[in-house]
Each structure stands twice: as structure tokens, then as C-alpha cells.
């Protein structure tokens, strides 16, 4: 149960949130035409006669878009409707050349499903929570109006016109910005695992309409507003925070919340009114006469299910169970498709380099990736896919540590050089003379020197001050310029200190 509340002048208020996420389907062509869908193309360079609504043009359904929508539904354990239908949603807008949008109001392809957001005390999510998904329907996108190209006119770019979208509609099951952020992040992760959407919110291929209302805890639902086309997790959370507080101020000031569509301004973190919110009957929906109902066969559904990858929750459980990773590390490594792919490549290379099973080196690989490489890349302002160090080079470095050739502290120095030069770890270690000293005779001689120079501390240690053991280890490492094998140092010190 969320404990998030808006502290109003007259008492506490609860926030109720639902998200309608528009996810662009991964496909080489549009929903009803063969036009390309590449991001960043010249305006109006990816427009067919169908997209431009030329007279006599008839839509032809793209089967790949349907397959991806079905796979997405299966990934959230949703009901897949074998029979669905396309409807026309009628409204006039300059970037909608048909004068209607082809969507699915009454009979969507995917019915009810759910996904679980994980507990996160720091974020204000005290326990795991199941968020219901009401439906997923397939529809075509509109074009885009550009208002900054001319002082008195708006230009129309129809490149997006007809692009296939999945509209994923949640239940109003979220009660805090943190829960909404966690839901959107988890949904994006699932879409990217499945491959049905690239999740690039900054490019507009995934965006959210944010429905927010407030009420006294336990009361009936209040009037909601819808903030359109919010394109980042952080902005969704900001929009909820602002809109919820705005609604509380309006109600406590004696006003009423109007059902309306609003826009989010990322520069100010605030929302503003755009237009009154229409209801379904305002769009005069009716079955599209140019498209037959969609009927899915069992063999098609079986192929869709067989094509699904291991999904985030299952992968996280396997990392904890089979690989013995901590819950935190498993969650970090499965939170993004690029991260888990990099980790699994690193794991395979590390096991091969050390002649061990993946489970034997999993903790070493996971700890190094999360603690060392992530930290180093963050300082450089680079993402994992921009890493100057490949997973093959990383495995080579970890093998040097695993075999005792270099110590963990020396490995940090080597990584810094690798990031700067792109060289392999072995070449760096050889050139810089960084090999770890494991000669017991040389180490023993240094230990004897350290103990002789610190006889008072030796007596204190033998008198019960066992914490001084670390002092002796540190002094020996310092004397050997960090190149001594810590395991050998420990064994020698234990035998000499008694």
C-alpha cells in the first residue's frame, strides 16, 4: 500500500494514476502501408499514397505489427483475443489527412494482463505491487505539425502518419509518482526484451498519456485530467507531482477539476490546459469498412509464444538461483536489455578465459561490471554500449585477477589505462611491470622487515589487538609497491604472528 500523500491545507489527499503508453511497434514498414519508419528522415520522405489518404487508396494490414502486439500481450500474461476489429476514430486535425484514425475501441487484440513493480524503499515503494493492464490495442499514428519553420504558418510532416502503435492502457492502480515511474520503466524493459518496441522515449517511439485524479483517502475516484505525450520516466513523475498538487489547490480553493487534456512543460515542470477532454462518443467510432475483422489462428499464437525470450523477472530469478548473485546485482543486471546482454557475453568470455563454469565466475563478473566499469563509464559520461573496453577485453582483465597475475587494486589501474588507450590488459601489465609478486621468499623477507620495524605493534597484536593484522598487510603491500599477492602475505603473516 502506497503511503504517498499530498499534504493539503485541509488534510491529506490520495493520488490515483493511470497511464496510457503509446509504443511504436518495431517494424520496417507502417501499419497499413509499405512506407519506411526510420527515425530522423527528411520531412515527408516516408509517405505513401495510403499515408497521405489519396482517394481510392485501401489499407493492407502489416502482419508483423500484429505479431509484435500479440507477443507483447503474452509477455505480460494478458488475454489474447483471437477475434478483434478495427474502428474509425473520427476527428479533424491538420496532421491527420484521412480525417479519422484507425484504432481498436470495442474489440482490442489484447485484453487484461498485469506486471509487477518491485519494492524499493528508497523510492517510496514499500512492497511489490501488481499493476493491472486493461488492454493493448493497435492503431495508426498521426503526422506531426511543426510550428517553428515559418513566422505565420505551420508545416505538416506526414512521416509518422500511419506508423503502427500499441496503446497499452493501465488500470488506475498507481498511487504515487514513484509507482508510475517504476511501472513505466518495467514496461519499457519488457518491450525491449521482447523486441516489440525500441523504447527510445527521446525519439518519440514510446510516450505516455498521464491520467491523474485526487481524492480523500478511501473516497470515490475524483475527476481526472490527461497530460499528453510525456516522453521520459522523469517527466512522467514530475507531471504527476505538479498535476496532483494543482488539483488539490483548486479543490481546496473552492473550485472544481475539469476533465481536460493538458500538456507538460519540461522547462518548468508544470502542466497547462490544452483542450477539453472528449469522451468516446465524441469521436463517432464505427467499424472500419475497409478492414475485415482480425482472426488469429492457434498455430500463429503458438509461434508467437515460442518466440518470446527469457523475460526480466525469470532472468532475475535465474541469476539469483543458478548464478548465486545478490538480489541487488541481479536486479541491476536485468533492468535493461543492453546490460544483461553485455553481462552474459562477459560471463561466457570470463568462464572460457579461466577454464571454469559460468556459475563459478558470475559473482566476480557481476561485481566488477557494476562496481568498476559502470563507475568508470559514468565518470566518462558514456553508456555501456559506448564502452571503450569490450567484454572480451574485460574477461582478459578478470582472468589476470582470477589467476593471481595481478591484484584487485592493480586491476583498477589497468582498467584506467584500458579506457584511455583501448589496449588489452595483458599487454598493459607486461609493459608497465604490474605482475603480482607471488615469490614467497621475497614476500617473507619484506614481512620480516615490517615485523622487526614494528615490534611494539607485534606485541600489541599478540596481546589481543587483532585489528592490527590489517596494518601489517598494508605495510607489506606498500613495501612491495602493491604488487605482492595478498593471499601469500596473509599466510606468511599468520604463521609468523602466531
From TrEMBL:
Q: Which GO molecular function terms does the record list?
A: asparaginyl-tRNA synthase (glutamine-hydrolyzing) activity; ATP binding; glutaminyl-tRNA synthase (glutamine-hydrolyzing) activity; transferase activity
- Domain Asn/Gln amidotransferase, by residue range, is 341-497
Key word Metal-binding present: no
Top-rank taxon of the source lineage equals Bacteria
Q: What does this protein do?
A: Allows the formation of correctly charged Asn-tRNA(Asn) or Gln-tRNA(Gln) through the transamidation of misacylated Asp-tRNA(Asn) or Glu-tRNA(Gln) in organisms which lack either or both of asparaginyl-tRNA or glutaminyl-tRNA synthetases. The reaction takes place in the presence of glutamine and ATP through an activated phospho-Asp-tRNA(Asn) or phospho-Glu-tRNA(Gln).
Question: What HAMAP family does the annotation carry?
Answer: GatB (MF_00121)
Tell me the protein family, please: Belongs to the GatB/GatE family. GatB subfamily.
Protein name, per record: Aspartyl/glutamyl-tRNA(Asn/Gln) amidotransferase subunit B
Could you read off the lineage of the organism from its UniProt record? Bacteria, Pseudomonadati, Pseudomonadota, Alphaproteobacteria, Sphingomonadales
Amino acid at each position: 500500500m502506497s503511503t504517498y500523500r499530498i499534504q493539503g491545507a485541509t488534510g491529506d489527499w490520495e493520488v490515483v494514476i493511470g497511464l496510457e503508453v503509446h509504443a511504436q511497434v518495431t517494424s520496417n514498414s507502417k501499419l497499413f502501408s509499405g512506407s519506411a519508419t526510420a527515425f530522423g528522415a527528411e520531412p515527408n520522405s516516408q509517405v505513401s499514397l495510403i499515408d497521405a489518404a489519396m482517394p481510392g487508396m485501401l489499407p493492407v494490414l502489416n502482419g508483423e505489427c500484429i505479431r509484435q502486439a500479440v507477443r507483447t500481450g503474452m509477455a505480460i500474461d494478458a488475454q489474447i483475443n483471437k477475434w478483434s476489429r478495427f474502428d474509425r476514430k473520427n476527428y479533424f486535425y491538420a496532421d491527420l489527412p484521412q480525417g479519422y484514425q484507425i484504432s481498436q475501441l470495442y474489440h482490442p487484440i489484447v485484453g487484461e494482463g498485469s506486471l509487477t513493480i518491485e519494492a524499493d524503499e528508497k523510492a517510496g515503494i514499500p512492497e511489490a505491487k501488481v499493476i493491472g493492464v486493461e488492454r493493448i490495442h493497435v492503431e495508426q499514428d498521426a503526422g506531426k505539425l511543426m510550428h517553428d519553420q515559418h513566422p505565420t504558418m505551420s508545416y505538416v510532416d506526414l512521416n509518422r502518419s500511419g506508423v503502427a502503435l500499441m496503446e497499452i492502457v493501465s488500470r488506475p492502480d498507481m498511487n504515487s509518482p514513484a509507482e508510475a515511474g517504476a511501472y513505466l520503466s518495467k514496461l519499457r524493459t519488457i518491450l525491449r526484451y521482447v523486441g516489440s518496441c525500441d523504447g527510445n522515449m527521446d525519439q518519440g517511439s514510446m510516450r505516455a498519456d498521464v491520467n491523474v485524479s485526487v481524492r480523500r483517502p478511501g473516497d470515490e475516484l475524483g475527476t481526472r485530467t490527461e497530460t499528453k505525450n510525456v516522453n521520459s520516466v522523469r517527466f512522467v513523475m514530475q507531471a504527476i507531482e505538479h498535476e496532483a498538487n494543482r488539483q488539490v489547490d483548486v479543490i481546496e480553493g473552492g473550485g472544481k477539476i475539469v476533465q481536460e487534456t493538458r500538456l507538460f512543460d519540461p522547462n518548468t515542470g508544470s502542466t497547462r490546459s490544452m483542450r477539453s477532454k472528449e469522451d468516446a462518443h465524441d469521436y463517432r467510432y464505427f467499424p472500419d469498412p475497409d478492414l475485415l475483422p482480425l482472426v488469429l489462428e492457434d498455430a500463429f499464437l503458438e509461434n508467437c509464444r515460442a518466440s518470446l525470450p527469457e523475460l526480466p523477472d525469470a532472468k532475475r530469478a535465474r541469476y539469483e538461483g543458478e548464478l548465486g548473485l545478490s538480489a541487488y546485482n541481479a536486479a541491476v543486471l536485468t533492468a535493461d536489455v543492453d546490460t544483461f546482454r553485455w553481462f552474459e557475453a562477459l560471463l561466457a568470455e570470463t568462464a572460457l578465459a579461466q577454464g571454469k563454469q559460468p556459475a563459478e565466475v558470475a559473482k566476480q563478473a557481476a561485481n566488477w561490471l557494476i562496481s568498476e566499469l559502470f563507475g568508470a563509464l559514468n565518470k566518462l559520461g558514456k553508456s555501456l554500449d559506448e564502452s571503450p573496453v569490450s567484454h572480451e577485453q574485460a574477461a582478459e582483465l578478470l582472468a589476470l585477477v582470477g589467476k593471481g597475475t595481478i591484484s584487485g587494486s592493480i586491476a583498477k589501474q589497468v582498467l584506467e589505462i584500458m579506457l584511455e588507450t583501448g589496449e588489452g590488459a595483458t599487454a598493459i601489465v607486461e609493459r608497465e611491470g604490474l605482475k603480482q609478486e607471488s615469490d614467497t621468499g621475497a614476500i617473507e623477507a619484506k614481512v620480516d622487515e615490517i615485523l622487526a620495524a614494528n615490534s611494539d605493534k607485534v606485541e600489541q597484536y599478540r596481546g589481543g589487538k587483532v585489528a592490527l593484522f590489517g596494518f601489517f598487510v598494508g605495510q607489506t603491500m606498500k613495501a612491495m609497491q602493491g604488487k605482492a599477492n595478498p593471499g601469500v602475505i596473509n599466510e606468511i603473516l599468520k604463521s609468523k604472528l602466531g
